[in-house]
Amino acid sequence: MRIVVAGGDGFCGWPTALYLSKQGHEVTILDNLARRKWDDELRSNSVTPIATLEERVAKWKELTGKEIRTFVGDLNHYDFLREVFRQTEPEAFVHFAEQRSAPYSMIDREHAVFTQANNVLGNLNVLYAIKELAPDCHLIKLGTMGEYGTPNIDIEEGYIEIEHKGRKDLLPYPKQPGSFYHLSKVHDSHNIMLACKIWGIRATDLNQGVVYGLHTDETRMDPLLVNRVDYDGVFGTALNRFLIQAAIGHDLTVYGSGGQTRAFLNIQDTVRCIEIAAENPAEPGEFRVFNQFTEYFSVKDLAQMVKKVAEEEGLTTEIAHLENPRVEAEEHYYHAVNTKLKDLGLEPHLLTDEVLKDILKVALEHKDRVIKENVLPSISWK
Ligand code: NAD
Question: Per the confidence metrics, is the pTM higher than 0.90?
Fold first, then answer.
């Protein structure tokens, strides 16, 4: 299959591009390398030293003989995007290419406006490019479980049957996101739903949980193929961030009581979920939604799991409850459905002590790269 991976230089996109290439697909990466520039802006870095995109794809070709084409440019430059569609004629377009940090979107007005313009307009351009140049192309779009917020009822996969005044309908599940970033994903979902309805586009919205880990079989093949890992207060996500804090002897920074419960999955399952979606495309006109996660944990449970494993490895680790910089419920009901991907063949890699130790090992190996002052949260929602 001819597949474009937009955002293919990023944390989820890079291992996905390698995995799909290994499976025999004709893979093209589109990325404007903005994530690397945001590191410069924030004076931050990936814990692992990452090679340039050119070096990465050259090493992949050397090791496997497989070519991954690259296009460096912005989804918001429509002429560029059209050219990529013309040259690649994609059958699936995997869309990871957005600004994905909630704290980054909450820095100030400029960052909120940038996040929504980058994400919402970029996605709208992708929809128009599919309509204009590849109407049968399956859009596989990364959304987030954060679109739903934390309702006091079970979270369904995209739709919920509602009975109201004696009548019933299957309606989009209500969205109550908690940041301007998460809202950009909700806006994307609405735009995709309309495009499917009016133009007959086929789309799968993958509401992904928080991704942990870094390695896949492919990224382990050579140091030049290693994935990025974020740990700072802006781009670092719970679990990966805790493991890196443990490696440098920093307290594990739990925001507030830590009862916030979120859905998680291993990066190895991210890449497999994309393959499953690509191999089982949505029907023309269908706006399909999968909840892409395997387990959920409260933040304080994760901190305790990391503390235990770190201590077994001889590290002294404390858990610190910081004043919560976000506005969110710290104790709440959480139960979300995730059957559709499993029904299509996903076999989850669950979180075990071995998995935690494996990520901790990488963090320890590169701990001298950690810029300690970046670890604490610096952005407030208020
Ligand atoms: P990332 O920042 O590591 O990668 C995103 C990539 O997209 C970067 O390489 C960046 O340069 C590129 N990009 C951004 N805007 C672009 C634009 N306008 N044009 C071209 N390229 C652009 O992020 P990630 O962690 O790999 O996340 C990928 C996707 O998955 C995002 O859409 C994110 O919202 C979603 N997601 C991620 C997680 C997670 O835990 N990492 C969880 C849920 C959902």
Answer: yes
